[in-house]
Write a structure and sequence with these properties.
Distance between the termini: 112 Å
Mean pLDDT: 83
Oligomer: single chain
Radius of gyration: 46 Å
Shape: elongated
Helix content: 40-55%
Low-confidence stretches: 675-690
Structural class: alpha/beta
Length: 690
Amino acid sequence: MKGQTVNKTIVKILLIEDNPGDARLIQEMLKDANDLEAHVTQVKRLSTGLEHLAGHAYDICLLDLSLPDSSEEMTLGQIGTFFALPIIVLTGRDDVAVGISALQQGAQDYLVKGKVDAFGLGRAIRYALERSRLEKRLTTIFNNSNDVILLVDAQNQTITEANARASVVLGYAKNDLLERTVTQLAGDYAADWQSFFKRSLASSKGQTDSLSLLSQSQRPIQLDVSSSTMQDENGKSLILILRDISERKQLINELDFYKKYDPVTKLPNQASLEHRLHQYHTQQRHFSHQSKTALVFIDMVGFKRLNASYQGKHHDELLTLFAEVIQEYIRDNDFLAHLGGNNFAILVRSKQASTSSRVAQRIQESFKHPMPFKGKDIIVQVNIGIALEQEGDGFNDLLFKARQASHQASLDNEISYYAEETNAVLQQKLWLERELIQALKNQDFELYFQPILALDASAKPCLRSSEALIRWKHPEKGFIAPDIFIPIAEEANLIPQIDSWVIREASELAVQGNFRVAINLSSQTLEATDIVAVIRDALVDTGLAPDRLTIELTERVLVSPEFFQPIIQDLKALGVRVYIDDFGTGYSSLSYLHQYHFDGIKIDRQFTRNLLHQPKAKLIAETILNLARGLKAQITLEGVEDAAQLDWAKRMGCDAAQGYFLSRPLSFKDFIGKESNTELVTKETTIAPV
């Protein structure tokens, strides 16, 4: 259209042409090419042209085949040295064979002098430039592909071309690859490749498959392979695109492993346990085995506390250790599985039902002995339940029964078999657990207070403090005893919530009644909560002075000083007093006691009950007294039930006493409203809050 501006492509052209007339004609035609702005450099010799190419940048070369320093044949042979520059061959002979030869050597096009005009020349240059750009792009893709690309001769399976990725994946230099056939690289997998080639050549759509080749180091490489066919003047070839899936296959294998095995212990998991039971059932049907099957369920109840004592740093190592111990004490044909968390299970098959019990006893006995771990000896409590398979039991039935039996074992402190009456007890426990959760929401609890009297051999007892004791008043069942609901709360991990409520409630009531209060906290609470923050908040919110609060901890905390000692130090930094409760009933107490600094020790009631008629109990109580004095700790005698026990406590120099003889636990109203709490106190002393 008139007045329209044409955007021209600037092209730097090297013209190698010795005939002045032909050179002038070509330049004139280039001027007439509307969409090209040609900058032409002409040289007359091939050698000069090659020198120019080495020192200058050109977009395209127009090359005459007949030159003073090169024959037509020699010029054709030099085309490959033009640094991948697009070449258009100019020839005076209208010879198709010459043109084909030029294209085979790498030229983009060929033109016959005298038979081309400006339009044809311009079009040839544009097409040559575009094809060159496309080839460069394809070459870049070819050499930078993340997949291996091979060009394979269909007849002899020789590799005729390979990209850079092929050397990376297969480990061969490119020249080494081009000397080999695919079947040579396949080794023992050659038959699979032969079948693949046969299918690929017979199909017009190509084929895909998963095959393997051997690297230069003879390592098998798993590959996803796709093929397509190509026909050219050299015959039929196969284009193979190979994707290394070795890592993916390894991941799939690992995922498949973890579908059946526990990743920590490498033991079979619950799915594998269920599969093994189905196999037993199949064998029973087909081979009429008379063997009985039992499921032994192992609950490592002490694992959470032990793991917490190491701040969770050795969780996997502990589980692996326990798995190794269990494995050592089962029979070769027993099937051990890790069900996750701290639970293991064993399928035991035997003609005698008692076999499962013997296996369980060996395991339980093994965990009673200290095990070396990280330079220390550790002990972990295990509860073991056994369920004998009954006709009609499925896997879930058997697992449920064994698990229920393990819960019963936690109450009896022994190996327990599942029984229907056991199930009734456990159903009652589950009901209580649900009701406890509701009670926490509704705060259906009440605190009672049992006086702790200060003792002086020359004076009457007076009130030193009181121990806060929780009571649960169920809306339908009435009061439920703590020795019934506390163990259930521990199993359900509800103790931390209950203890937090007790801390807050006891602090508020102690401020209202102006008395000192002692609270017994579970080690479970210390493990699961930031107890220092809970107590600090309660003191601040209620206004209770820290020295009017005593925290009582069981001996269980002594065996994990790395975890509990910092907590006790932080409590004492608040100004709170810390006592050991029920002293003498725990294990390994003396070996750890020196690492702590407690304000007081409470001698357990079982020694009080027997100290006047069992010499050993009296000796132990006296030893604890001497130990406490050496540690400069206050001594409280628990469970005082008669005047003789109280008299002994005074004579032996106990600092305080507590028990039914002095006072039963009282409601808050009765505790602050009575001046005397028992007949003894009524006759001998008056309780006044201090």
